[in-house]
Design a protein that fits this description.
Order of helices and strands: EEEHEHEHEHEHEHEHHHEHH
Distance between the termini: 36 Å
Mean pLDDT: 94
Shape: globular
Helix content: 25-40%
Strand order of the largest sheet: 3-4-5-6-7-8-9-10
Number of domains: 1
CATH architecture: Alpha-Beta Barrel
Bound molecules: adenosine-2'-5'-diphosphate
Length: about 300
Amino acid sequence: MSTVTQPQPTIPLNNGVHLLAIGFGLCHTPPNATVEAVETAIRSGYRLVDTAAAYLNERQVGEGIAGSGIDRAELFLQTKLWISDYGRDQALRAFDVSTRKLGLSYVDLYLLHQPVPTHFDDTVAAYQALEELLADGRVRAIGVCNFDEQQLADLIAHTDVVPAVNQVELHPFYVQPRLRDAHARLGITSQAWSPLGGVNRYRPADPNAVRNPLAHPVVVGLAERYGKTPAQVVLRWHVEHGTSAIPKSTRPERIAENIDIFDFALSADDVGAIDHLDTGVRGGPDPNAIDPERYPLTIPD
Ligand code: A2P
């Protein structure tokens, strides 16, 4: 298995902290596969690891980090606060639980996992708790996930720190140009979840969502022309856009493949060709439909 040795591109966040362009995603990675996946990822060269309280694998992520022997300072660890812990006091407590499970004294990027439109006051209070953690040096940057343009505006109107990152569904079939323009205006970095479009295969909320960007003739043709795999072309497309992407896999060869993308670049025309694959149809759940009643998950200690 190869290890990436080229310098990895980073993206400066709005508070001066640098985010890596490619990270290792762990959504849906079962706890019993997580330790090995994290160790493999770190061995392959990943230095950004993305988890969440709601993935229920933070403890195993921590074990994988410890087992890898990596120096903590070399790693960028991001995790997310789940909606059942929104509100200031709940959020601060949940952060302590996450760091205890991870075995870390600080987190590099702490994110609200979802907006909760039906309880937006609690969403704001949770974000204010993130601001406190930032001021206390327990997190190096804060942000959100799955916020739309209006929700970003509402949050920013009620809080002091503009989110550094909005992590959203982004892949060649769901390009979100308007939201990304809003991010650029607001100084927010876009981070892509399901950057390979995997969500269209494993959890299509909309049965009409086109299934697999990696099998699309445009992507396959570019892969042949660049001598890369379809996944590498798609991940490079994210990098060309200045987007951070967190592909996930439990297969060692794919884990290595997905970070081995720093020795080529796509032309502007080829970036545009992938942009044109946008269907405007998301594969994942509508973020506006998420509330504690519909998603009653609570996070065990
Ligand atoms: P697996 O875990 O079997 O490798 P996304 O991050 O966009 O949601 O995509 C994740 C999905 O894509 C997973 O089902 C993963 O399956 C698969 N996948 C990850 N890397 C690759 C790759 N390089 N080529 C093909 N499929 C991949």
